Amino acid sequence: MVGTGPKRQPSRKGSMADVPHDLLGEIKRLEDLFTVDTAKLKAITDHFISELAKGLSKEGGSIPMNATWCMSFPTGHEQGTFLALDMGGTNLRVCEIILPEEKGEFDIIQSKYRMPEDLKTGTADELWGYVADCLQQFIEYHHEGEKLDKLPLGFTFSYPATQEYIDHGVLQRWTKGFDIEGVEGKDVVPPFEAALKERGVPIKLTALINDTTGTLIASNYTDDEMKVGCIFGTGCNAAYMEHAGECPKLEHMNLPPDQEIAINCEWGAFDNEHKILPRTPYDVIIDKDSPRPGQQTFEKMIAGLYLGEIFRLVLVDLHSQPHVQIFENRDISKLEKPYSLDASFLSDIENDPFENLQETHDSFEHKLGIKTTKPELELIRRLTELIGTRAARLSACGVAAICKKKGYKTAHVGADGSVFNKYPHFKARGAQALKEILDWEKDRDGKRLGRGRDPVEILPAEDGSGVGAALIAALTIKRVQAGNTVGVKDVDGMLEGCAPMKGK
Ligand code: GLC
User: Which segments does the entry list as coiled coil (predicted)?
Assistant: First the structure.
């Protein structure tokens, strides 16, 4: 369970006693730049709430608030065998998921493939060819010699897509450093299916989903208090269940106002108009030098893809200032390479348990060829704390905004992603910020805060892009079979030859 306060490493006190004046001054300046106080957190959250509503309006706003056509939470009794494909950002994962008779249970087999870096900026044909090859390999390996009917597939495509149907999705724009020509503005399903057909892979795409929607549904499958699904990983985003009556932009669909529909917020785009977020000069550079300047303002301050780069930009900037003595007379050419440090480099620094920051000293030497002094190490450590804390506190604004919009006084929020799972203190710092934003006085059971369960808790999620994708495929087939075909394009295809496989 997540506590309410950041837990400090008991073994390291840290001391700025030996830090010379110029560096102390810089530390103070960085603290001012990167610290987001309670009042600002609250102001950001309030603006966030109005932007969520704006995204659901007919006019739209900068947060896309994409309708997903996932129209209910699972009952826990979904059954069958499904394939799931996860195209997240770093890896490609293919899974076979068995949903057995037992409520809330699942079995999973999976294979992971590293996404080659050059694929991210290659051609659309290369991308779909690679994805189809991975699926083919998986099926040949796990079903060698079997005669297969079409297997239903939940495809987790974790980028903003406009979906008029659940088996359709027009990529709005690439995020997370992807830049493949000829995909934006088009439905990604036909070229994907064509690549499968070319290879004779017996698969029927049943649902195209976002990782956050998968996380929401998978988490709710095992814990029905889970009301929001979040990803804090390479990118940052959330999904939650909304009522159709709250979505003016869906009015033309004539859905009953209390019909549930999962919304993929794509909140990475929050504040693209730069009204409220406390952006630093470093955030401005990250944006300017990214493949899509002006997009994903919130994400670029929080997500794993950018944390190492923010850190690197600060250090390079300090080195260039004549009045700051940092890395003087040392070769910093390795540090000057954009995106040379990832979030795990920062995690390791925050995890360094030694008073003299020996591990940090060693990683600077090994990775960057820079021999650091004790005062420099103190600044480096403080900088990672500031960047990591800002990310966690800003993330909490999004969570609080959804809870406030929905009127959830208590809720579980399922979270996944490398930053949530691996970045030191991210959970506790997020919990602390939620407490400040939502003004809790008591915990969930009316006891003093910090003793038990916080009213809103961000907890580790179930596997959204595996189990979640399978569940959404199952829910879609089930509702189509029951005659509810709203938001489904290929109704016949889904009814024919796409019965969920029987569990083995
Ligand atoms: C980016 C994508 C979004 C995804 C998130 C987490 O923000 O645009 O679709 O959910 O990363 O992977």
Answer: none
Nearest CA to ligand 1 atom 1: 235
Compute the distance between CA of residue 136 and CA of residue 201 in angstroms, rounded to an integer.
6
Cα 16 to Cα 23: distance, rounded to the nearest angstrom: 10
User: What is the Å distance from ligand 1's center to 215 Cα?
Assistant: 12
Q: Please determine, for residue 435, whether its predicted confidence score (pLDDT) is greater than 60.
A: yes
Euclidean distance between CA atoms 170 and 206, whole angstroms: 16
Looking at ligand 1, which residue's alpha carbon is closest to its atom 9? 159
CA angle, residues 15, 20, 21, in degrees to nearest 5: 110
CA of 174 to the centre of ligand 1 (A): 9
pLDDT at 499: 57
Ligand 1 neighbour 283 (Cβ under 6 A): no
pLDDT digits (tens, 9 = 90+) for 243-252: 999 999 999 9
pLDDT of the residue at 7: 53
Catalytic option among 86, 211, 342, 490:
211
User: Atom 12 of ligand 1 has which residue's CA nearest to it?
Assistant: 235
**The model's pTM:** 0.95
**Cα(414)–Cα(85) distance, integer angstroms:** 20
Strand segments, DSSP code E, in 197-318 are: 203-209, 226-232, 236-243, 260-264
For residue 245, count other CB atoms closer than 10 A to its CB: 13
Residue 500 to residue 26: CA distance in whole angstroms = 60
The secondary structure element, H or E, covering residue 186 is none
Query: Which one-letter DSSP state was computed for residue 249?
Result: G
**pLDDT attached to residue 504:** 42
| CA atoms of 312 and 368, how far apart (whole Å) | 11
> CA 313 to CA 23: how far, in whole Å?
16
> How far apart (Å, rounded) are the C-alpha atoms in residues 486 and 166?
9
Among protein residues, the one whose CA lies closest to atom 3 of ligand 1: 159
Nearest to 427 by CA among 409, 439, 414, 411: 414
The torsion of the CA quartet 403, 401, 86, 64, rounded to 10 degrees, works out to: 130
The two tokens of residue 274 are 């730069």
Ligand 1 contacts CB of residue 86 (under 6 A): no
Regarding the beta carbon of 266 and ligand 1, being less than 6 Å apart is answered yes
Q: How confident is the model at residue 149 (pLDDT cuts 50, 70, 90)?
A: confident
| Spatial CA neighbour of 454 closest among 433, 476, 468 | 433
